[in-house]
Write a structure and sequence with these properties.
Elements lengths: L5 H16 L5 H25 L3 E2 L2 H7 L4 H12 L8 H10 L1 H28 L6 E2 L6 H9 L7 H5 L2 H4 L4 H28 L3 H21 L8 H5 L16 H25 L11
Parallel strand pairs: 1-2
Helix pairs in contact: 1-6, 2-4, 2-6, 2-7, 3-6, 3-10, 4-10, 4-11, 5-6, 6-10, 10-11, 10-13
């Protein structure tokens, strides 16, 4: 594509990403970190203190990325933080005309990637930093994760135990679980952003916002009742532990299926966006705003 300019794409993404980072709504991210700490990290630390054993420093993040309750909150907060993405108004018309339609679209997709990566990086750091002095770095699960229920059978149902179920530590290694959790949740967030972008290009952004909420809600509901319908939603495909039983190596559904599902979803949305930007009509452009 002779009209594609990497300089324009990166410049556009950089400028808009910096504006997003400096947005006052980022206070919501701080509130999310406080919630995550009290909801997920404190129960794990309490169990570690009872056992007088350290946690693996990656375990809190793995627990966060595999908690159905938290994986309802994280996409909703991300959706709130990117609610005006992509920002399209009368000034944007001249911006698109100057940089070119495809450069503008690719700049928006790059900005979305940067937003999702940064958002998850903050959550990762918020999970890891509090236990740096109390944990260890090793590709193995802690005794807190694997032996707490046996050591304290009367507390085997507490929330700290539920955060790291047997489906995780019996079937995966810590490093692979952490990396895969990051990638899968990242793909989930990218899907949310691409839906907003897709519907903005057909001037139905409000509908796209509602659809994102429906996908997040249905995904949570289906995962809660463990119906096979959950595999039609990004959420179930983003939770590693749902892919396995507690003891048997044979997965409930293969991880390859989930990776292909998420990549296909993303690819279809990007293709839709490419078609949409080519047909984008500048008339009544303000209608795309929420």
């Amino acid at each position: 594509m002779k009209n594609i300019s990497l300089k324009k794409i990166f410049s556009l993404a950089k400028v808009e990403f910096v504006k997003w980072v400096c947005d006052a709504r980022m206070i919501i991210l701080a509130v999310l970190l406080i919630f995550i700490y009290s909801f997920a990290i404190e129960p794990l630390l309490a169990n570690a203190e009872l056992m007088n054993e350290p946690l693996n420093i990656l375990e809190p993040f793995i627990a966060i990325a595999n908690s159905g309750a938290i994986l309802l909150i994280i996409p909703l907060v991300f959706l709130t933080l990117i609610a005006d993405f992509p920002k399209i108004d009368t000034n944007t018309v001249f911006y698109i005309h100057r940089v070119g339609r495809m450069n503008w679209l690719l700049g928006q997709i790059l900005k979305l990637i940067l937003m999702a990566l940064a958002f998850l990086a903050v959550i990762f750091l918020g999970a890891v930093i509090p236990i740096l002095s109390k944990g260890f770095w090793y590709n193995g699960w802690s005794n807190v994760a694997t032996k707490f229920a046996q050591t304290f059978p009367e507390r085997s149902g507490n929330f700290g135990v539920q955060l790291l179920p047997e489906n995780l530590y019996n079937q995966t290694e810590v490093f692979s679980a952490a990396v895969l959790s990051y990638i899968l949740v990242f793909a989930y967030l990218i899907i949310i952003g691409l839906i907003l972008l897709s519907f903005s290009l057909v001037k139905q952004k409000t509908l796209g916002f509602v659809l994102c909420g429906v996908i997040i809600s249905l995904g949570t509901a289906f995962c809660s009742i463990k119906t096979n319908l959950m595999w039609t939603m990004p959420m179930a495909n983003s939770l590693i532990w749902l892919h396995y039983t507690k003891y048997f190596r044979q997965p409930v559904i293969s991880m390859r299926f989930s990776v292909i599902y998420l990549l296909t979803f993303i690819t279809v949305l990007i293709i839709f966006c490419v078609i949409g930007i080519k047909k984008f009509n500048y008339d009544n452009v303000s209608e795309t705003a929420i």
